[in-house]
Amino acid sequence: xxxxxxxxxxxxxxxxxxxxxxxxxxxxxxxxxxxxxxxxxxxxxxxxxxxxxxxxxxxxxxxxxxxxxxxxxxxxxxxxxxxxxxxxxxxxxxxxxxxxxxxxxxxxxxxxxxxxxxxxxxxxxxxxxxxxxxxxxxxxxxxxxxxxxxxxxxxxxxxxxxxxxxxxxxxxxxxxxxxxxxxxxxxxxxxxxxxxxxxxxxxxxxxxxxxxxxxxxxxxxxxxxxxxxxxxxxxxxxxxxxxxxxxxxxxxxxxxxx
Length: 258
What we know:
This protein is an alpha/beta fold. It is 30% helix and 26% strand.
């Protein structure tokens, strides 16, 4: 197996200064979903994209969500991230009820407490890698010693020296590692990843998942990954399966991490 020039240096995060934003303060990072529905009006009637009576994730644990396309995996991840509001029900992360927050407070909570990694890296093409990551720190108002922190993290992720490049000057694997750096630089309580290896070759996918696991373990973040890849799923501590907008399976992974 290729090593893809991945650094073997363990991830290390300096202590973050306390935020003055009350929305970002968490007592624990458990996830609780209760009686959540996501419904859309369509030309042929009401479509129920998600029907989740209950779903809980222990703080600091790792969970993979699998299922066929259109089963509601990404919809569930989107409401967990606060990117969308459910039609009804409650979603709580730590002691914060996301569904009780208005849009402004929900955005503030997300930018401080949640890190999101997408299949498409979603890096801003007109900013360098370092500038993309710095933007996350600026949103959190946590820019003390930012340049050194970014350089150190890029080194640990195996892309040291690439901070000055634009996203289009990187390979797919390098771009996804840069996206992971942006998602974890602020030390989020929860890391959410939607098909983070879907566009990568097998060897690069293995290294990207290991980076997410390393970050999850170092930060004691709760990690939830949506994937179609059974190898990725088995590396998580728990496997949840979905079908037709509902959770239809939930078990511990024999070979997974916590």
